[in-house]
Amino acid sequence: MSESNFSSSVFGMHCANCVTSLEKAIMQVPGVQKVSVNLQAKKVVVSGKFSISSVKEVIVNKGYSFEQPMQDRTKELWIVWLLAVLSFFVKDQLGILVFLGCALAGDLAKKLTHDGLSSLKQKDYKMETLIFIGVWGAALHHIFSLLTGHHGMGKEGVILLAIYLTGQHLESRLKDKADIAIKDLLNLLPDDVVLIKNNKKVTTKLKDVETGDCILVLPGQSVPLDGVVIEGKSELNESLITGESEPVLKVIDDGVIGGTLNISGRIVIKVSAPGDEGYLSKLVEMVENASAANIPVQGLVDKIVAVFVPIVLWAAGLAGVFWFIVPERMMGINQFLISKLAIDMEPLSWFMVVLAVLVVSCPCPLGIATPLALFIGAGRGAKIGLIIRDGKGLEDLKSCKVLMLDKTGTLTTGNPTVQSIFPFDGFTEEQVLQHAASAEEGSEHPIAKAILKNCKSRKIKWQKLENYKYHFGSGVEGLDKNGNKVMAGSVAWALPEPIAVSDEIPTDATIVAVSIDSKPIGLIALNDEIRKNAFETIRKIQKMNIKIVIASGDREESVKAVAEKLSIKNYFHAQKPEDKLALVSEYQKDNIHVVFAGDGVNDAPALAAATVGIAMGDGSDLAKQNGGLILPKGNLLNIYKAIVLSQKTFSIVGQNLFWAAIYNVIAIPLAFFGVLHPIVAQSAMVISDLIVILNSLRLQKIKI
């Protein structure tokens, strides 16, 4: 009962119900505090003080296969190495075979055997295929040698197995180091919380908290779960979400995120989502999904590996044939290379050459080059306030040529306020505002919220309309109690005929026109501040030679004013959802990567169609569902950081693939001509693995 954070692979899950059922079953294990099962990544993360064997038993009883973490097999690895060392001191050929048999009987070797046989049967060649053939080839050669009285390769087989398993162990350790930041996110949540029930404090376990419960959070404590402040006020450190360390003031009705730190005041929050549905859990799941998802460069690597392994098998076979049939010719080349490289070594037998070709060609570096860098990159994105929903989005972002931005809620804060009201003849400001509020009541748009808020502050009551309809990018309409059609939206949509806008309305204001039965009754001017980091973001992205375009549904004067303030030359106004979609498609005609950033429902089609869609985290749910990347709290500067992160991540991927390729180009010919001993070849392969892993880990420290 000593494990505090446990992660393993679980295979056989195919549906969301499987995940829910497994999570509930694992939660029943004594000592388990938190469980997260990721269907796409086929991975389970368990936190608490529990027995691994108990968790394994639950998983197996549910009918799933279970892959125990490599770091929990250290003892077995030591045993294999002990057998390898002892084989040097045993001259008896049968004794060496016994040692080899004992080494192959362990779980680690059994897994290698299982994976190797499966790949051969299914013709799905992987890196384990070559090692499996090499190790078992050595074993069979040793058995054959016992029967013929020759020297066998059992000793080499044990050492090869030990080196391979050591490489796998180190790889697993380094990978755990790479994703520890993601796992530790779940540990930001406290084990116990204080509930407020009937004005009394009740301490309970976090896992027992339900939606609607009220939790007391004191200064210095982490917010346990997502919720809304219902009492008190305080400053919270939201760097987990936004990447910014500056505290944010939270008052009544403000939302809070589980895992953020309460700094200054006492607050009571009403829980809006349990732990498994909260921000942190979704963040961990999305990061794991991003690293598990197939991306173009990884797809290419997989195809290369699938072709590479059969070629290596043929190369090993040809090496054996040449060294067996024309040993003099091969030995001549061998001696030439040895003399040039100044190597002192004994000539190898044909079987040793075959073994060397097999193990040196293991494409482990090629296989881990992309997914490991991608996983670390996704984790780094989470730490700077960027949620990467799919790996393809992160890959495509590096070659972005056009960045298209919505205005309201993207370049601006998305929290507009009513600036002024301009009633037409026969109507008052209150009447215009009242009818606008009646129409906007059913909308979640920031403009609708601003109008309703202003109406409440003036204590103006409004009526609920019937036959409510929302028109994408245009406005809303409905029927009042007298059957009159009330419309509120853009001037071009809500008013039957064009009108001259008063000079009193600021050029950068957003205008909402209100009409009754197509008769104009007034205009409402709203002001929405430009995000504080918009200027810095635009300046930095423009320096990257990326074309910036504004695509807004707002009027020309308002869009133009914002574009001029931000020094953006290209802008489009009065854009409906279908117009934004067409605009994205137009730029993509010449195979140009277009990134679209938006927050509203009317941005969803363009977000989905763009090469990469970036949804503002404080925008609509539909926008976030269609975005490949999400910026929590709408930190615009993170668009720039996302592009830099993409470039850095895939620069590392390129370096990894280059190293893997160079390693094979040099090592395979040397092994083919007998210059590399199988043990040296296997050691070189492990070193190559470690170089790729350590290079990928640099992403954790690279400045974004």
Radius of gyration: 32 Å
Hey, roughly how much beta strand do the residues contain?
Answer: 15-25%
**Average pLDDT:** 76
Helix run count: 25
> Helicity, in percent?
40-55%
Strand segment tally: 26
What is the global morphology? elongated
Q: Which blocks of ≥5 consecutive residues have pLDDT under 50? A: 11-16, 290-294, 619-624
With strands numbered from the N-terminus, the spatial order across the biggest sheet is: 14-26-25-24-15-22-23
Major sheet details: 7 strands, mixed
In total, how many domains does the architecture comprise? 5
Describe this structure in words.
The chain is an alpha+beta fold and 704 residues long. It folds into 5 domains: 66 residues, Alpha-Beta Plaits (2-Layer Sandwich); 235 residues, no CATH class; 94 residues, Calcium-transporting ATPase, cytoplasmic transduction domain A (Distorted Sandwich); 132 residues, Rossmann fold; 111 residues, Calcium-transporting ATPase, cytoplasmic domain N. 50% of the residues lie in helices and 19% in strands. It has a 7-stranded mixed sheet with strand order 14-26-25-24-15-22-23, with helices on both faces. A hairpin with a 3-residue loop joins strand 17 and strand 18. Helix 3 runs antiparallel to helix 4. The longest helix is centred in the last third of the chain and has 36 residues. About 2% of the residues have low confidence.
